[in-house]
Automatic annotation (TrEMBL):
SUPFAM superfamilies: FAH. The lineage of its organism: Bacteria, Pseudomonadati, Pseudomonadota, Alphaproteobacteria, Hyphomicrobiales. It comes from Rhodopseudomonas faecalis. This is Uncharacterized protein DUF2848. One of its GO terms (molecular function) is catalytic activity. InterPro entries: DUF2848, Fumarylacetoacetase_C_sf.
């Protein structure tokens, strides 16, 4: 378990929160379009990454991997980030943040579950109340920027209409039950522009065009050497 400090931005004001994260789940293959999903599976299989056992699929990682830090350390140069919305269940509600399922891509080729555990999972310290977003969730834009070779480039961009509905993701993860308190779940990602590749900095955001606000988080990636 890890305890993290957040601020919850609601229509009634900003509420400081200290929340225990007791379990962490990484949802994968949550895209709504099955044709696009199967095409991407085939692309990954072509570079040696095994077909997922199910779609969607839910990987468990250590709760301590979830962090609001603005810097992470990784081993070697084969990891990369991917922007995702993050759901946290606590105090009788579901809250929404934005984060990155940072993953070691080399390890991913021999073990997806192991690869998910290799890197920390950075996320925003600011949260929204999902109840305030539910009626326009599909309009929210998920976006990321990566600093590659010293240049900040748009890495991902798309509406959440491309991802399975929140209720369906939760129901499939917990066999029809609600998310348990203290659970943080990364909700899946959207396609990358120009292919998956490492960066020295990764930034992700959720833009709400209806309520005119944006959640952001960014972190630097420090590469540790592989010596044997």
């Amino acid at each position: 378990m890890v305890e993290l400090n957040f601020t919850l931005d609601t229509a009634q004001g900003v509420i400081p929160l200290s929340l225990p994260i007791k379990q962490a789940v990484i949802a994968g293959w949550t895209g709504r379009d099955p044709i696009a999903r199967d095409k991407h599976i085939a692309e990954l299989m072509a570079i040696g990454i095994a077909r997922p056992a199910a779609t969607p699929i839910y990987y468990r990682v250590a709760a301590a991997r979830v962090t609001t830090a603005d810097r992470i350390e990784v081993v070697g140069g084969d990891s990369s980030g991917e922007a995702e919305f993050v759901l946290i269940a606590a105090q009788g509600r579901v809250m929404v943040g934005v984060g990155s399922d940072h993953t070691d891509r080399k390890v991913e080729r021999y073990g997806l579950t192991v690869a998910k555990q290799m890197c920390e999972k950075p996320m925003s310290s600011q949260l929204w109340d999902y109840a305030e977003l539910a009626d326009h969730w599909d309009q929210i834009v998920l976006r990321s920027y990566a600093t590659i070779g010293g240049n900040r480039v748009l890495y991902q961009e798309g509406r959440l209409s491309g991802v399975l509905p929140v209720a369906e993701i939760i129901a499939k993860a917990f066999n029809g039950s609600e998310m348990p308190d203290g659970c943080a779940m990364f909700g899946g990602t959207i396609p990358v522009k120009g292919g998956v590749r490492p960066s020295t900095r990764f930034e992700c955001e959720l833009e709400d065009p209806v309520l005119k606000r944006t959640l952001r988080h960014g972190y630097d990636v420090v590469t540790l050497p592989i010596l044997g």
